[in-house]
Structure formats: C-alpha cells, structure tokens
C-alpha cells in the first residue's frame, strides 16, 4: 500500500533548523557534557542529526515509552517499555523528542527523570503541535511549530512506516 504524502517541511529547512538548534545548544552547554536521552523510536533520526552537529561532549542513552489507551488518558501516565541503561544522577540531561502533541508523554517523563537527580533537565523537540496541548510542559528547544495535522518522516511514523523520509510530510488519508 502506498499513501500520498505531501511535503510540509522540506529537507533543506529541517537541516537548516537543526544546525541552528545545535549551535544554540552547544552555546548553552559550553563547558558541560550533554547526556542525550533519545526517546525511541520517533526521535532517533533527529537525535543523530542534532548530536552530529554539537560541539560539546555528548553521551547517549535510550528510552522507549508508550502511551496508555484512552481509558487511562486522564491519568497522564505512560508505560515504560525500555528504561535507561545508566543513572542520570548529576548529569546535564537533554531529552530529545520527535513531536509534542498532548504533552502527556513528556510531562510524565520530565517528572520521572527529575526525581532521579540530574544536574539539569531540558527538552528538545523537532516538532510541536501547540493547538493540541492538554498538559503544560516546558520545552526549551523547539524545531518547528506545526498545525494540527498528522505528520510523518524524519523519525515519525504512520503504522511504523515513513520514519526514514528525509522531510516532514502529511499523509493524505483517502
Ligand atoms: P503526546 O503524549 O500526546 O505529546 O504524544 C506524543 C507522541 O505521539 C509522539 O512522541 C509521537 O509518537 C506521537 N505523535 C503525535 N503526533 C504525531 C504525528 O503527527 N505523527 C506521528 N506521531 C505522532
Ligand atoms: Mg514518539
């Protein structure tokens, strides 16, 4: 099955914005080491591209989470499918996400990771859909604010497909 996908953010624009974010983060973390937490699977592409352009020392860890179904939406809890391998105590942690939608996932993760004693904890997301926000969460670095559309590419999937697209696109559902 092939879906029609229209380009929302072209590859060149994504690349340019990631360069800008990397410059800003490198400046903000000067003299420190950034401990990147890549939220699987959606943020792998963005995390790698961003990390390659950082000029400060970087370490990586990975976490995989899944939102509970609608019946538990109000609890705002997410299920941890894979936790971090290493302690984040005393580290300057930067959570990298693909997209913030309702904000539930990141708000839960931020509370959870804060309780583990990092020296600092910030969030960087490639995309933000502010119109969809249900839970306020402070995000320090945002690549692009986008309208309330279902997007794919650059790590984001539709039924696990299209994560490898080098641009951000909108699936045209027939
Ligand atoms: P939140 O907890 O509602 O903010 O959920 C964010 C998660 O929902 C992201 O990490 C994505 O996995 C998924 N998601 C939200 N919007 C989209 C989209 O437009 N395309 C693909 N995945 C999305
Ligand atoms: Mg995700």
What keywords describe this structure?
6-stranded mixed sheet; globular; 33% strand; Rossmann fold; binds inosinic acid; binds magnesium ion
Q: How would you sum up this structure in a few lines?
A:
This protein is α/β, with parallel strands linked by helices. It is built from three helices and nine strands. The two termini are 12 Å apart.
Description of the structure:
The model has no long low-confidence stretch (mean pLDDT 93). The chain has a single domain (11-147), classed as Rossmann fold (3-Layer(aba) Sandwich). It has helices at residues 11-28, 44-52, 104-114, and strands at residues 4-9, 34-40, 58-67, 78-82, 92-100, 120-128, 141-145, 151-152, 168-172. Helix 2 (44-52) links the parallel strand 2 (34-40) and strand 3. The chain has a six-stranded mixed beta sheet with strand order 4-3-2-5-6-7. It has a three-stranded antiparallel beta sheet with strand order 1-9-8. With 174 residues, it is an alpha/beta fold. The chain is built from three helices and nine strands; from the N terminus they run βαβαβββαββββ. Helix 1 (11-28) packs across helix 2 (44-52). It binds inosinic acid and magnesium ion. Residues 42, 67, 97-105, 150-151, 156 line the site of inosinic acid.
